[in-house]
Specification:
mainly alpha, single chain
Length: about 140
């Protein structure tokens, strides 16, 4: 369920960026996807975005915590000659604090997810770095 949620959460973004994720939420309902998946995808667009579903579950907070941070980590990996290899949470936190770096990344959203998971930002960054380091397709 968690993998599918992460994989599908931006399904409608390319065709419907202004309505995202509402189009895919309709589809998931029609296709009888699990309510937990639908809820997490809806919650990841809560607040200033386009839904009124506040995050409640661990899945909701995990998707929120990982979504924007994944973009920041990927942007940072592109700057580095070794990509994710040798990347450290400490250097990522410096980039996180630099609002000019990956300026469209919503740092507040990341912090909402991290707080909901009851983990520290450094720990979360370290975990995601380790996940990305294991992915063959992200190796330089």
């Amino acid at each position: 369920l968690w993998y599918d949620t992460g994989l599908l959460h931006d399904l409608d973004y390319d065709k419907f960026p202004d309505a995202h994720p509402n189009e895919s939420l309709k589809w998931f309902g029609e296709w009888k996807y699990p309510v937990e998946l639908i809820g997490a995808i809806s919650a990841h667009a809560f607040g200033s975005k386009r839904t009124e579903t506040p995050p409640k579950t661990q899945l909701d907070f995990a998707l929120i915590a990982c979504d924007e941070l994944s973009g920041l980590l990927y942007a940072y990996s592109l700057m580095r000659p070794t990509g994710f290899d040798g990347m450290e949470a400490k250097s990522v936190k410096k980039k996180f604090k630099d609002k000019a770096f990956a300026a469209k990344i919503d740092r507040k959203e990341i912090m909402v997810g991290v707080a909901g998971l009851k983990i520290g930002l450094s720990e979360h960054i370290k975990t995601l770095i380790e996940v990305f380091q294991e992915m063959e397709e992200l190796r330089k």
